[in-house]
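Subgroup meeting minutes
Present: P.N., E.W., G.H.
Scribe: E.W.

1. P.N. recapped why we're keeping a running log of single-chain structure predictions: easier to compare across weeks, and new members can see raw inputs and outputs side by side.
2. G.H. added today's entry (166 aa).
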Amino acid sequence: MKKIFLVLLLCVAMFKAGAQPGKYAGTKKSMIGKIYTDSRNIPGLKGWTFMEGSLLNQVSDPEYIMADVFKKGTTYVIIFSIREDTASEETKIYDVIEVTGVAKGWSIRVGTCTQSEQPNSYIVAWGKDTNAEYMKLIKKAWRFDPDKRRVILIPVKGISCENIGC
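Output recorded in log:
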């Protein structure tokens, strides 16, 4: 009986560990929980170039859920933040994705992706740049879960992202 209990306890602990924010944060895990007031000046990203940002939910929602993408060399960092009080400037980082080794001609897209042709602003994708209306060659994709306030890895099948400016 004790062995069964220990196995169950271990399984629960492993499940919880995999469900924690920061699973894909790499060297930027320490940013989770930080508060900032300017999305172009986030603590821990000095020297990084802002690439794009997006409000993931509706402006009319009681809180703002945002994703911002920064680049330094071939590394991209995607910051998922929530402004719980829309009247305040304080925004809290809830999860981070660090993507290393992004080759020239590839980029990260947030807020403009679809899954099986259905818009899903919570999807972030690493894909091949193209002149077509949609980026369809996707290497990796994640989705921010607004209820659990964390990022999960999702299959790339059926994911495409709009190419802004094409």
